[in-house]
Amino acid sequence: xxxxxxxxxxxxxxxxxxxxxxxxxxxxxxxxxxxxxxxxxxxxxxxxxxxxxxxxxxxxxxxxxxxxxxxxxxxxxxxxxxxxxxxxxxxxxxxxxxxxxxxxxxxxxxxxxxxxxxxxxxxxxxxxxxxxxxxxxxxxxxxxxxxxxxxxxxxxxxxxxxxxxxxxxxxxxxxxxxxxxxxxxxxxxxxxxxxxxxxxxxxxxxxxxxxxxxxxxxxxxxxxxxxxxxxxxxxxxxxxxxxxxxxxxxxxxxxxxxxxxxxxxxxxxxxxxxxxxxxxxxxxxxxxxxxxxxxxxxxxxxxxxxxxxxxxxxxxxxxxxxxxxxxxxxxxxxxxxxxxxxxxxxxxxxxxxxxxxxxxxxxxxxxxxxxxxxxxxxxxxxxxxxxxxxxxxxxxxxxxxxxxxxxxxxxxxxxxxxxxxxxxxxxxxxxxxxxxxxxxxxxxxxxxxxxxxxxxxxxxxxxxxxxxxxxxxxxxxxxxxxxxxxxxxxxxxxxxxxxxxxxxxxxxxxxxxxxxxxxxxxxxxxxxxxxxxxxxxxxxxxxxxxxxxxxxxxxxxxxxxxxxxxxxxxxxxxxxxxxxxxxxxxxxxxxxxxxxxxxxxxxxxxxxxxxxxxxxxxxxx
Length: 621
Description:
There is one protein chain. By secondary structure, the protein is of the alpha/beta class. The protein contains 24 helices and 21 strands. It has an eight-stranded mixed beta sheet, sandwiched between helices. A seven-stranded mixed beta sheet has the order 3-2-1-4-6-5-7, with helices on both faces. Helix 5 (136-153) packs parallel to helix 8 (219-234) and helix 9 (262-276) crosses helix 24 (607-620). The longest helix has 18 residues, at 136-153. It is globular. The chain starts with a strand and ends with a helix.
């Protein structure tokens, strides 16, 4: 079933916002064979628009609940659309203005040709049937605008400024939208034509409103739209370029392989995938271990380890490195929004490079919250928000937090973490037996596993506190804790002091072959208090384990509770209750969730898909 993302941009639409949203919610997508995702962007409204939206979806939960994002100030319709596009996950994108000039019930009908492969873009045209005309000059202006764009690109379009636009996801790939105002309508049409894509127009009903009722578009917007179309028609490149026409990418990170962490895992995976395509990949990282070579090739990437003594020295040294090696790359990709991001932003201003910075995590332990706790961190956030960098979020939760913190929506995008689905795959019976023997496990009892860092944000202290009660109800279940971190000594002491824990908890050291540990388990547990999009969770899903995770960060972007995994509210008590419920479920339910988890990993989070998304973003920059 294909999914339609309905984008609702809104600015001061208190009177119609709730009705517009209710119209989208009630529209019958399912009968037409579509799933539905609703993303609202309140573009800095100063009336009751936000509250009207919230009241309209009160009572909805889970996947049926719309996502609502807010701009701190009014940035324009184009900026709102771009913010929503960055957060969207649908196969088809539909724009629904909050003013109710367009009927939401039309969306499934207009999406049908895209789903059937008969069109890549569909516009609802106000001029293919008789509709009311309130202002003759607006009518004439729309017709003239469409005529000009048609002449510029030698394509036929009757209604280029319609706000009822639908696109297949592939149409927007590789296109960088730049407009912030109503000229976004002309930009989208022009760049679609510039790519050689035809637009299918279908008649729609149109209910125009008056200026007194809140109509906002002006003749200045129309003139700006014409100018936008002219610039796109005669520009050398239509808002995007191919990575192959410029040098490669430099990945900047305080830590890199063999250091084991989420950002480092993703960095190595991305570097390997990009290098495998023949791209030049440079890595600049800190020489945190004197035993590691200062320069080596890892996964096809040229890794440089510099400045071992302190973070400040690495900040300065990485800036000098980026400036000195500027001819080797066109894009600087910072793997986490820590202090090296400032070096990248400063070097980019000097060398005219493009910068991409990843915001890895949300919540109490995320990049933004931790930065706000120190003076230097607050200065860093101030400078980053005012830079020209693009920011990548692994999930919608991080995206929403960044937006509310004042990052520009048009500089935020979502690219989920990836997983090597060939390496992380369901294990054979022999692999399972071998993995269990290596961990000292005997028999065929069930096992739950945690893999990752032993840090406070992972919630392991709470899990051990609840474990005696869990194993009391399910004495056949073992808990494998695979990893290391600052809490390891304390966790081991807690386990050793309790007979129930000592006999049922197994500690395993960190390993570069964590898939061998996963082969021993039936369930994966992640009781985190904060996350981005957990690499460990994706690896477990790819291995076909039943995943039980707290609903924090990007967990809900990957896991549908009861379908391909199980979500818990973020507390030790709630997590323990959810885990007990899962352990008590019929085996058929658990087996079905494991198969669905594997499918999700392959279809949505494969490493090749992630690498391709980054390459497209590099191109668009």
